[in-house]
Amino acid sequence: MSELEKRQKILEKIKHKLSLLPDQPGCYLMKNGNGDIIYVGKAKVLKNRVRSYFSGSHDAKTQKLVSLIEDFEYIVTSSNKEALILECNLIKEHHPRYNVILKDDKTYPYIKITNDTHPRLEVTRTIKKDKGKYFGPYPSAFAAQQTKKLLDRLYPLRKCKTIPDKVCLYYHLGQCVAPCEYEVDQKQYEDMVQEITKFLNGGHEQIKIELTKQMHAAAEELQFEKAKEFRDQIKHIEVLMEQQKITMKDNVDRDVFGYAIDKGWMCVQILYVRQGKMIERHASRFPYYGDAYEDFVSFITQYYSENPALPKEIVLPDRENIEEDQEEKEGIKEDLQSWLNVKVLLPKRGLKKQAVIMANDNAKIALEEKFKLIERDEERTTKAVENLGKWLGTDPIHRIEAFDNSNIQGANPVSAMVVFVDGKPERKEYRKYKIKTVKGPDDYGSMREVIRRRYERVLKENLPLPDLVIVDGGKGQISAAIEILEDELGLFIPVCGLVKDEKHKTAQLMVGNPPEIIPIPRDQQEFYLLQRIQEEVHRFAITFHRQSRSKSMVASQLDSIPGIGEKRRKKLLKHFGSLKKIREASIEDFKPLGIGDKLAGEIMLALRQEQDGSS
Question: d(Cα 149, Cα 172) in Å, to the nearest integer?
Fold first, then answer.
């Protein structure tokens, strides 16, 4: 059966399932040929939404997704809100490839007051149910650390993770009450925790007033050093809480969202407003595949499921679609509000509307920057490829094939080839080679074998020939490649070598036989292109070598055990997953594989002895 016939059969099956879809809200799960879930979406009316993927025109990106769909499932819910929650949970569970928007694993820092006998402040990205007090999220680790640094100066809580035997420098600086040496009244801790909580909940103005009183009192008592310390603390608070781009008089913590779409991509911009002041922003860019606004709302639900410390308010742009009725808009707002248990606003005027416009504008600019950078890089790469041929004195170069060998003292020798077409990697055409005929660390011999195997196949299968072959190394590697190409195969392809410096970085380009150095300046785009190619083929070869070495080590450890052949070794690794798990198994765990108690004991003993010997 041809690929076209196979696809038509799949579409017939899908068409039949589409006719059975209900007119109800719910979630749909798109699957590929392996049964993997590749996309999860939600819909107010399942029948309309799922059908839309298989009818009408789509951009190239969505066409790619649809071409991979071979089946789908759906789950009916009683409301849009349930669909929203279910979609969020399904994406977290399955991590579908095309739900990129909801897989931003960025975690935000929080300031935590630990629930210890002697509490301390720390910055953390993980919220645990440990009775500690968490404040945040902060837009960056720097913002959280600066706030903690200020609080450390103001309140002398314990600083050390493990209480030492004697007082440290913090005690002498007046920044620790030294529970290591002195008994501290719990009331003193409670008062400090209360003050810190007040500060982090927006009471910094009141704390400034109290510090100002203490500064004046110290000055009146002629304690000028102490008065200076209070003055410095007040200045630190002012710097930290300095007014920024947006100021709202209500001092409410809120996150303001905006988004923009272009060329199948979405950018979501979040403005963090804390105590009424905009302190920072964060942008996420990703391809989207469904309805833009619904995918935007899905991003928000996923974002807050990963960052559970909510602000008092979130502000969103309205869905700008005149055909959509007000009731549906309110429905989206209410669903988010009731699930997140936070006030959700879609402002139509005023300062909050201006903040949303600012977020939208910033999202649009961030997307434009992304596309401009891509265009600029493409222009530079195209120019570099054109000029490379001029440097080498050849016709224009379109296809480059680069090779690199990898081994450790001759063990598990491998080679790898990468392909660049018009300056861009063609990863589907990368190839890996296990060296078969060469024993020991013979780099030139390995190069001859791989070049022979590659271009014998190119000739046999009538594959496209490269305009340039790049080898990792100098004269020896170039000569080895030319020997096979010209003398054995009759192929006259330019061959160049990339020589590295003592720091293992691309240093110079050599070409010809005998090889000559081509003096491409290091600040030229052509040099950067060669550098990228060399780094890519080295990365690919090293990765393959590590995999081969790892498999070889596993095989050798198991093969050395009497009674374990290749068949049993494969069954063991498939069943347990790793040597570590085999080592930790019990006698009973081997019985499903038909391995008796005696052999199971020998396996475990051999692996544990080998581990002890190598540790």
Answer: 17
Strands 399-408 and 468-472: parallel
Cα(315)–Cα(256) distance, rounded to whole angstroms? 5
**Dist. CA 605–CA 598, nearest whole Å:** 11
CB burial of residue 609 (10 Å; 0-12, 13-18, 19+) = exposed
The CA distances from residue 578 to 184, 297, 561, 575, 603, in Å, are 51, 41, 16, 9, 13
- Angle 210-214-215 from CA coordinates, rounded to 5°: 115
Residue type for position 114 = T
Q: Measuring CA to CA, which residue among 300, 317, 319 is closest to residue 357?
A: 317
Residue 325 has pLDDT above 60, yes or no: no
Question: How many structural domains compose the chain?
Answer: 5
In a domain, 245, yes or no: no
- In order of 551, 565, 590, the CA distances from 571 in angstroms are 14, 10, 11
Phi/psi region, residue 272 (left: phi>0; alpha: psi -120 to 50; beta: rest), is beta
The rounded distance, in Å, linking the Cα atoms of 345 and 460 is 66
* C-alpha span between 432 and 323 (Å, rounded): 55
Condensed to tens digits (0 to 9), the pLDDT of residues 413-422 reads 788 999 999 8
Mean of pLDDT over the chain: 80
Q: Which of 65-74, 317-326, 488-497, 510-519 has the lowest mean pLDDT?
A: 317-326
Those residues with Cβ within 8 angstroms of residue 49's Cβ, 6 or more apart along the chain or in another chain:
28, 41, 43, 290, 291
The pLDDT-based confidence of 460 (bands split at 50, 70, 90) is very high
Q: Token pair for residue 319?
A: 């869905």
For the chain, give percent helix, strand, coil, nearest 5: 50, 20, 30
Which value, in Å, is the radius of gyration of the alpha carbons in the chain?
32
Please tell me the distance from the alpha carbon of residue 159 to that of residue 173, in angstroms, as a whole number.
Answer: 12
Residue 162 scores a pLDDT above 50? yes
Domain containing residue 143 = 110-240
Q: Are 566 and 496 found together in one domain? A: no
C-alpha distances out from residue 587 to 110, 270, 507, 578, 603, Å: 46, 55, 57, 16, 10
Are residue 34 and residue 114 in the same domain, yes or no? no
Q: How many CB atoms lie within 10 A of CB 298?
A: 23
| pTM tops 0.85 | no
425 and 358 both lie in a single domain:
no
Residue 610 sits in a domain whose CATH number is 1.10.150
The residue among 240, 273, 306 that closes a domain is 240
378: in domain: no
**215-261 pLDDT per residue, tens:** 898 888 888 887 887 787 777 666 655 433 345 557 788 899 999 99
Q: Which residues are bridge partners to 196 per DSSP? A: none
Six-digit token string for 149: 């640094």
pLDDT the model gives residue 464: 92
* Backbone φ, ψ for residue 404 (5° rounding): -150, 145
